[in-house]
Specification:
By secondary structure, the chain is mostly helical. It folds into three domains: 58 residues, no CATH class; 86 residues, no CATH class; 34 residues. 71% of the residues lie in helices and 0% in strands. The protein contains eleven helices and no strands. α2 packs antiparallel against α3, α4 crosses α7 and α5 runs antiparallel to α7. It is flat and about 70 Å long. The chain starts with a helix and ends with a helix.
Length: 182
Amino acid sequence: MNLEAIFSNLGIFSLTSGQSIMMLVGLVILYLAISKKFEPLLLLPIGFGAILTNIPEIGLALSPIEKLIYFSNPKELSGALSLIVMGEGESLSSLLKTASHSQLWLLNEYAAELGYKAGILNTFYSIAIGSGVAPLVIFMGVGAMTDFGPMLANPKTLILGAAAQFGIFATVIGALILKSLE
């Protein structure tokens, strides 16, 4: 084995300046969460996500079609291009930003058939965040960890909390009514 070939294939050599900046931001966020104890419940996952997403050559946050574009096998790309109608001069990567849900699904299924798998962060995003489950679980967890001592010491704050909840429900009901009137 050629030692130079091994080193030239390391991911560190394909690290872009944007990725390195975001990894530094992730490290700063982790430092603030761990050392300074500044909102660790929020900053720890954000810091780890920033670092994991920007590791070069792994594609933890890429969908199957994005991995196919990244590895750019001409034969496989031409197969993907034959599945959809594109505008003149439009590239596949620019189409992904404006594609419909059915077009994205078709392209991802094609890429998955070729052996490209979604990264773990992409899977987590589509299951937890894309479905809307993660925000609900996060808010339930934050609510369960809420310290009720100040409210019990000053019961008048209960009225403020109830008013805030009423405002949320009134807004949702109002939005639903307005949507039904369209």
